[in-house]
Design goal:
Number of helices: 3
Helix content: 25-40%
Strand content: 35-45%
CATH topology: Jelly Rolls
Largest sheet: 5 strands, antiparallel
Order of helices and strands: EEHEEHHEEEE
Structural class: alpha+beta
Strand order of the largest sheet: 1-8-3-5-6
Distance between the termini: 5 Å
CATH architecture: Sandwich
Length: 138
């Protein structure tokens, strides 16, 4: 069994963003040479997320509005955590959206359902953050 590991780095220009990272993950898969196995993608920061969904701008807008309604960024003083920082909402949004995804690798390709893509969700951006890609298989 082979193993592959790579870190991807992202630095968004905005506090919150959804980035389709499927092309970068596909490049990792090709580089790994693994044809059958499992691929893990996880955010290595507590205010960022990795998730699978459709790459449709209306849906991304709806997710942003929904997440902001669940955990509004402001007022900052609504959160006890914000006595040290101003990103409590980002921690809560990450908890809802999840840390990682696992995708089957079949025939050297991501074994997706229709419309599925891998996204990096940033909830406290404007700084460099890492995403881990780990692939195991043959």
């Amino acid at each position: 069994m082979k193993s592959y590991r790579k870190e991807l780095c992202f630095n968004t220009s905005t506090r919150r963003a959804f980035l389709n990272i499927t092309p970068e993950v596909n490049a990792c898969l090709a580089e790994s040479g693994i044809r059958e196995g499992l691929l893990l993608v996880n955010a290595m920061h507590i205010t960022a997320s990795v998730f699978i969904n459709d790459d449709e701008s209306g849906l991304h807008h709806d997710m942003e509005v929904w997440l902001e309604a669940l955990a509004p960024e402001k007022p900052y003083d609504r959160y006890r955590h914000n006595s040290y920082e101003d990103n409590a909402d980002a921690h809560l949004k990450r908890s809802v959206m999840g840390r990682e995804v696992v995708v089957a690798v079949t025939g050297g390709e991501l074994d997706f359902g229709p419309w599925e893509q891998i996204f990096y969700g940033e909830f406290d951006g404007k700084r460099k953050k890492r995403v881990l890609v780990k692939i195991i298989g043959n």
